[in-house]
Amino acid sequence: MRVSLKDVAAHAGVSIKTVSNVVNNYQHVTPAMRERVQRSIDALGYRPNLAARHLRKGRTGIIALALPELGNPYFAELAASVIDAASGHDYIVLLDHTGGSREQELLVSQGFRARVIDGLILSPIELETEDLRDRAQEVPLVLLGERDYDLPYDHIAIDNVAAARAAVRHLIGLGRREVAFIGARRGRSEPAQLRVRGWREELTAAGLPADEGLVAATDGWGHADGARAMKHILDSGRRPDAVFAYNDPMAIGAMRVLHERGLRVPEDIAVVGFDDVIEGRFGAVTLTSVSPDKAAIGRLAVESVLARLNDQAPEPRRIWADYQLVERESTLGRPAGAGRGTA
Amino acid sequence: MRVSLKDVAAHAGVSIKTVSNVVNNYQHVTPAMRERVQRSIDALGYRPNLAARHLRKGRTGIIALALPELGNPYFAELAASVIDAASGHDYIVLLDHTGGSREQELLVSQGFRARVIDGLILSPIELETEDLRDRAQEVPLVLLGERDYDLPYDHIAIDNVAAARAAVRHLIGLGRREVAFIGARRGRSEPAQLRVRGWREELTAAGLPADEGLVAATDGWGHADGARAMKHILDSGRRPDAVFAYNDPMAIGAMRVLHERGLRVPEDIAVVGFDDVIEGRFGAVTLTSVSPDKAAIGRLAVESVLARLNDQAPEPRRIWADYQLVERESTLGRPAGAGRGTA
DNA sequence: TTCGAGTTTTACAACGTTATACATCCCGTT
DNA sequence: AACGGGATGTATAACGTTGTAAAACTCGAA
After folding, report:
1. CA→C1' distance for B31 and C27 (Å)
2. What is the domain extent for residue A24?
3. Contact positions of strand C to protein Cβ (< 7 A)
């Protein structure tokens, strides 16, 4: 069996607690004693049993990250950034995916999928405010993403309305007048509402009609959904001169359809995506996109969870991460601005 | 504080162990007793403390999955499939990424990054046989991916040589004679060696020269690396009529360069990738690719780890997963429909 | 020498669970 | 009626760690 503190203590001829003190770098240990115990530790190859430590301290050193789907590279990159951030605090990350379904999100938020965690970072899609309200407050929860909840949890996101407005402003600046929005979600909940709102506000501000006939609802968030939505718009006889998609995969799916129909990007239709995933930089037409600071989001999420875990956190707050509009071939034209903010 | 077995026992007026028996579905519990205890469990909202269970049983219910990088959608999709497979066995997945560096892979393989796990699924890139040989045998290890080790661990992969040969055979069948390979890795280790070997064998079998001048080494595995490699080949004055890339992102990066140089895919140069990631289906030219059965790989990996954990596993073995060559526009016999976008 | 105030080490009791060994109960058989 | 044996429930001791409180040192000053 494995070496325990008891074995080390016996080997060094001291009490168990003294060994524990050495292991944990307790202040009051004489250098001589530390040396002696350390020698036994090395000799026996002792390594702490984390299960016992967890039981005793009530901490596991694990935080869970629940994302809608890993297939979307934005979430994959976000996961990577969370893992790195956590690693810097000696935390490891348990990953789960919900498929963006309310049921799974509920299970995750109530801790039924993972019960060994110190904290949870959740990026909800369909979850409603009331779903989270009766959450048994077991471990700290930090929310990520576009949904807008009025709840006592930290929430990290970029300013989706402002970012969407920047994207639409950019398109208008190119002289486009009919800007379609791809990716409003069907059903009662409206996860895309902030981006749709930004689209609407900016058009209105520019004195253009926010034509709801140019808003295409979809069932999912992938390439295929974007393609279907684009087809739907074109088949309905509309011919917008610009498309703003909920995210990059949908934008790329839409561009594929435009290509199949012989429509040129950006000459006939300009396209802007959201998330700035790597694949947008290598298509035949590179994609202009809103680029959230993923590294910052991951870092802030981890820091928030850990702060709350250590009771160092003030009241729950909304934290804004930076973003940037990155222009590429799909909207060749003149420069646009960046945005940012703080809570 | 949280509800423990003790609380439930007091509430139900029985001993702690009886409650434990109910929780663990122990055989000999009368329905009446089970009912009564269950009522208390529900009333108090009891949920087992995994740290304690872990300490007692020596199991955590967690397996770790260590992948080179999540940014590559192949690995992201693989992670999703492992998470789903594990979930079916009441296991959860701790995710780590190594960046494909030997140092990180070593840390992971020796359990220094995560020590609360029952088993480890590792997809190594640079790790050498000897690095794994002196691994302290703490938890079961299952290997994934292209590397070929002669070690007592289960190894799950598709037959890379055969798959690569199928890809090259397909290109030769189109009448292509100069097939470049993109993505051999620099340095002493040769992670891409099996696919290069398949490339070489198939060309030779067809009576064509395996021209090493058409093999492009890269530093990484991403879009940008593929683009660089393609540029390198073209700049060296070579003009192959086909390209076989180590993976899809590299193939897509290469196609972008071909597009920039005014070379048509597939008319001038046919392209085949590897992994069949979703993004290959939505470019201006969709990508022919070797499609490994990711769901099977995830499932087999989880099953292998758990079998070994339960001592139900025979001697370590190599397990082959299925694959398929999916043909798309990048290797179409005749020119694709809508002309290429312009400008 | 004795005392006191710090400093260093120790003994012991948790943390919440499951395994072991034992006690009890309920039967059908003698 | 008493017995034996399987089915069911219980008390207790681990698992390996850390927090608490108390004991045992050290050292300078009375």
Report:
1. 18
2. 5-48
3. 7-12, 14-20
